[in-house]
Write a structure and sequence with these properties.
The chain is an all-alpha fold and about 70 residues long.
Length: about 70
């Protein structure tokens, strides 16, 4: 019968490696202590249009970059 699983490391090393990455995999705390160092989430198509416009003010529809006003 063929041996299944990881044959690259022994069981003890596998357990040690699993323990080392457990905090990254199951982390519920922020990665940074200071909130200001956290990255902002990127908007995507699941976000409402107002959220996307707020995060990307130069790409939204509106007066920014219009240049077609007749204020003369």
């Amino acid at each position: 019968m063929a041996e299944r699983g990881n044959t690259k490391h022994n069981q003890e090393l596998d357990d040690q490696m699993e323990h080392e990455v457990q905090g990254m995999v199951r982390g519920t705390k922020p990665a940074h202590v200071e909130e200001a160092r956290e990255t902002e989430p990127f908007p995507d198509e699941t976000d409402p249009e107002e959220v996307r416009d707020a995060l990307n003010p130069n790409t939204g529809k509106g007066e920014a970059g219009g240049g077609g006003g007749s204020n003369e």
